[in-house]
């Protein structure tokens, strides 16, 4: 009894000594015996005395983000993909891919394909459990489709999704189509974000006509109390200049023309899209860039007559605002 206890104690001591010696070897430089330190910035372990790189390309097991206080750390900490308002369930449900292949890229057998199809069907039923969720799923898909066609950024899509959710919660949809409210939400979100699109552009990608869009838009704005400022013609200028492949000098000149027109009161009662298109056309003429009224008309989706009328007014306002 006593001998076995002694033997067990001896083995434990030997194991502890081996572990200690291995740890000491890792903490000592193999060349000079100096102390080694971990350089997290360069992912290396180096000797503090001689500078020998003991290990390199270490794996950083920490997060990819930085936090400067406890609150920020708790806010950024996450598991899985971030939630988004662009999905009816905020992206918290499971998605089953449509490809009938396994993790190695091999095709599934007939029996497995049938099983996966049943799982997809039940998963879809669980994701949309009532009419409200089905409504939301259809509307958010419509918003994403139109935003993609118009080239609108993610923040506009998120804002439009929030506006539609509010309209649904406040029971504003009865008597109005899902597509009409979704289109109005996207139009309002684009104007709020400073990346407006004209009614004609929105109508071109929407499933509702212009009359229904304007009527639903006014109703949504009024009932939700949204603060949407009048569209600024300068917000349209960068997109028109980019689509026409014009220079930065032309863009600056167009902004100057619009500033002069604002000082002279030309903006009042005029379509911001027409003013922006006319300013780009006039600026192109002043900077000797080749662009026709038809080119600008196609990009801005307005008539050439509007461009002719507005660009003359802009030039007159610029002459009036110029110092004598």
Descriptive account of the structure:
This protein is mainly α. Among the domains are: 131-224, Cyclin-like (Cyclin A, domain 1), CATH 1.10.472; 233-321, Cyclin-like (Cyclin A, domain 1), CATH 1.10.472. Helices cover 58% and strands 4% of the residues. It has 13 helices and 3 strands; from the N terminus they run H-E-E-E-H-H-H-H-H-H-H-H-H-H-H-H. It has helices at residues 2-27, 70-76, 110-127, 131-150, 154-169, 178-192, 199-205, 210-224, 237-243, 248-263, 272-286, 293-300, 304-321, and strands at residues 36-39, 44-47, 53-56. It has a 3-stranded antiparallel beta sheet with strand order 1-2-3, with no helix packed on it. Strand 1 and strand 2 (44-47) form a beta hairpin. Helix 10 (248-263) crosses helix 13 and helix 11 packs antiparallel against helix 12. The longest helix is centred in the first third of the chain and has 26 residues, at 2-27. It holds the Pfam family Zn_Ribbon_TF. Residues 1-29, 72-98 are annotated as: Disordered. GO terms for molecular function: DNA-binding transcription factor activity; TBP-class protein binding; zinc ion binding.
């Amino acid at each position: 009894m006593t001998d076995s206890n002694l033997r067990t104690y001896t083995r434990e001591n030997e194991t502890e000594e081996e572990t200690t010696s291995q740890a000491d070897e890792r903490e000592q430089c193999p060349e000079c015996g100096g102390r080694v330190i971990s350089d997290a910035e360069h992912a290396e372990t180096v000797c503090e005395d001689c500078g020998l790189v003991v290990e390199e390309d270490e794996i950083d097991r920490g997060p990819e983000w930085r936090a400067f206080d406890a609150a920020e750390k708790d806010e950024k900490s996450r598991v899985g993909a971030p939630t988004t308002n662009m999905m009816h369930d905020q992206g918290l449900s499971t998605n089953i891919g449509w490809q009938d292949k396994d993790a190695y890229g091999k095709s599934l057998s007939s029996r497995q394909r049938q099983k996966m199809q049943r799982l997809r069907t039940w998963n879809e039923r669980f994701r949309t459990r009532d009419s409200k969720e089905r409504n939301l799923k259809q509307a958010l898909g419509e918003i994403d489709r139109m935003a993609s066609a118009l080239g609108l950024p993610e923040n506009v899509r998120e804002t439009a999704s929030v506006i539609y959710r509010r309209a649904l919660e406040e029971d504003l949809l009865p008597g109005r189509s899902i597509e009409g409210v979704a289109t109005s939400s996207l139009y309002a979100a684009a104007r709020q974000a400073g990346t407006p699109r004209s009614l004609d552009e929105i109508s071109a990608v929407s499933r509702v006509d212009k009359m229904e869009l304007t009527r639903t838009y006014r109703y949504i704005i009024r009932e939700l109390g949204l603060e949407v400022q009048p569209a600024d013609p300068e917000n349209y200028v960068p997109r028109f200049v980019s689509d026409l492949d014009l220079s930065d000098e032309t863009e600056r000149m167009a902004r100057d023309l619009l500033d002069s027109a604002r000082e002279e009161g030309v903006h009042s009662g005029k379509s911001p899209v027409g003013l922006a298109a006319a300013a780009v056309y006039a600026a192109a003429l002043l900077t000797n860039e080749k662009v026709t009224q038809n080119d600008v008309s196609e990009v801005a989706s307005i008539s050439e007559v509007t461009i002719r009328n507005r660009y003359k007014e802009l030039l007159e306002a610029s002459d009036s605002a110029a110092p004598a």
